[in-house]
Design brief:
mainly alpha, 100 residues
Length: 100
Amino acid sequence: MRELIVTQDQFQDFLARAQNGEREAFDHLLGEHRSRLEAWVRRQIGMHLRSRLDAEDIVQDTCLRAFESIGRFTSSHDDAFFQWLCTIARHLIWSASQRR
């Protein structure tokens, strides 16, 4: 997915549509942050967990959880959306590292 640049108004529109269940709108929101999220997850996993956790699995699970809970996202700006994705990923990394 290539990164797209959206304005604040576009972000608000995509967010409202995603919160109404529109997958395409959610994909636009995610497209803004996917490569950045992948890099963030890889840094968080680091060398010590890389043999036990797959970064792409964490990213996929993060995207799924975010889509399932987009209705609870309340901020109105784009950077908060990325931080929210990172929070979901952080919890998934922690949970996965505890299980293995």
